[in-house]
Write a sequence for this structure.
């Protein structure tokens, strides 16, 4: 195999630079994917800055990949060279632990993360176990598919896992890269959707995406009338908010569910949970099967990320735009290696 061309950070917080590496022999159950597009997620920034303490350098970020399989190992199943596929945060799991055997490969304790300890998708090619290279169906735009494999499945998975019903009144806290997809999913799921945002200028856009109500996330006066009314709230932000105020908006047996990586401990009182039989939970991305289900749902309902486009050679400018908070709503890099 020829060397893989990529962009890598050589130290925490460093700008990305051109980088080449020899990937070695392709594993028996691995596929090699020619990267056409790769979205940028806030998690890429977190790992580049080593905010979670698990980054390994040199680091090739990128885990919202859309491309084509160009090589397969001898024991690969289900997919073949030429297939259009996507790859997200996970690139492998053991396939033998209790979690994997019951279909929760995303909970595998020995799972492989696409950008931790291995090179990711800011490259011309990337590798994964065949099960995590999920086929992209007709009706899903390859140029917009990448963000579905992280941002999309992150917010779709709890809708399935937590049993959200079409009759539910559901809140989405934070309407950025994750939240704008959650609003679309929940609208097509049949829910009454409340979008909580601190950006007043997003109101019209959020209604077009499917929000029935837009609420200022930092205004207690707008939260108070919602007391005991919401069945499910999905938190997509990574900053601390007044969680007790949101718990107060939950109906009895309601659930506050986190998919954003809030690093600070949650300041939550027990009695409002106890007296309302309410719960707090969280989830990572989803399994390959749930990812495939999400992609079919997107194709059926015309759901897509709202994207801004850069060439992969502009990766540092793209990262700076994401970090500034100005991206609407997901940035996608196009492979422009020559």
């Amino acid at each position: 195999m020829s060397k893989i061309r990529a962009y890598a950070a050589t130290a925490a917080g460093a700008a990305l630079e051109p980088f080449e590496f020899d990937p070695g022999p392709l594993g028996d159950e691995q596929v090699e994917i020619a990267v056409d597009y790769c979205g940028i997620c806030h998690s890429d920034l977190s790992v580049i800055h080593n905010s979670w303490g698990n980054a390994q350098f040199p680091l090739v970020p990128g885990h919202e990949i859309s491309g084509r399989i160009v090589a397969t190992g001898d024991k690969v199943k289900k997919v073949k060279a030429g297939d259009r596929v996507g790859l997200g945060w996970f690139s492998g799991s053991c396939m033998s632990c209790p979690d994997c055997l019951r279909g929760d490969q995303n909970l595998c304790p020995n799972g492989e993360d696409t950008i931790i300890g291995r090179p990711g998708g800011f490259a011309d090619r990337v590798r994964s176990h065949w099960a995590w290279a999920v086929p992209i169906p007709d009706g899903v735009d390859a140029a917009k598919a990448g963000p579905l494999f992280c941002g999309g499945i992150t917010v779709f998975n709890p809708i399935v896992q937590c049993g959200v019903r079409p009759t539910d009144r559901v809140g989405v806290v934070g309407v950025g890269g994750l939240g704008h997809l959650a609003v679309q999913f929940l609208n097509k799921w049949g829910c009454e959707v409340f979008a909580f945002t601190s950006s007043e200028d997003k109101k019209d856009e959020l209604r077009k995406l499917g929000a029935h109500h837009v609420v200022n996330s930092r205004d207690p006066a707008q939260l108070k009338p919602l007391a005991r009314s919401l069945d499910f709230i999905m938190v997509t932000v990574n900053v601390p908010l007044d969680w007790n105020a949101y718990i107060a908006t939950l109906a009895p047996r309601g659930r506050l569910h986190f998919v954003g990586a809030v690093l600070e401990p949650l300041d939550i009182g027990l009695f409002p949970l106890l007296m309302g039989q309410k719960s707090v939970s969280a989830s990572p991305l989803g399994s390959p099967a749930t990812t495939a289900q999400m992609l079919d749902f997107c194709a059926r309902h015309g759901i897509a990320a709202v994207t801004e486009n850069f060439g992969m050679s502009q990766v540092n400018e793209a990262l700076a735009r994401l970090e500034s908070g100005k991206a609407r709503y997901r940035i996608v890099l196009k492979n422009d290696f020559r």
Observations:
- DSSP finds eleven helices and 17 strands in the chain.
- The longest strand covers residues 30-40.
- Residues 288-301 form the longest helix (14 residues).
